[in-house]
Specification:
Layout lengths: L2 H12 L3 H8 L16 H11 L3 H6 L11 H20 L4 E2 L2 E2 L2 H25 L10
Antiparallel strand pairs: 1-2
Length: 139
């Protein structure tokens, strides 16, 4: 199920129109209708998650979080460390450029959110497909 379909369903369940939801979370009218072809930024996903009282994972996939392995405090630290190392490596090189121009702060924040999400998904998938008897996590 696509994000837009999930938003429409959640609006119906909450008894609000998409226009009302957009107004309530502070985005421009008609923005949500574009989410069939593109995705909103991490900040908007967070607002939607809070507004509907569901996880971002549920917004995007339509699946319950109970199917997804949870991340431990160690996993969260590993994600933060890997993100910091990746961003540091990119920052020290000329890698953070687009068309020969340095990235602006907004684009850097979007890149950071995207990288964090990718690392998080990789960590979850590793937990999902690693049998417990081989897992090194001891909680």
């Amino acid at each position: 199920m696509a994000l837009l379909d999930n938003i429409k369903t959640l609006c119906k369940e909450k008894g609000v129109s998409q226009r009302k939801m957009e107004s309530d979370i502070g985005i421009s009218n008609g923005s949500s209708s574009k989410w069939g072809n593109s995705s909103p930024g991490a900040d908007v996903l967070q607002k939607l998650s809070s507004y509907f009282n569901v996880s971002i994972h549920y917004l995007v996939t339509g699946k319950s979080d109970s199917d997804t392995p949870s991340l431990s405090a160690k996993d969260e630290k590993d994600i933060a460390k890997r993100l910091e190392n990746t961003l540091s490596a990119l920052d020290t090189q000329e890698g953070l450029m687009f068309s020969g121009e340095p990235l602006d702060e907004t684009t850097k924040e979007l890149l950071k959110a995207s990288l964090e999400n990718s690392i998080r998904i990789a960590k979850i998938n590793a937990k999902k497909f690693t049998p417990k008897k081989y897992s090194s996590d001891k909680e």
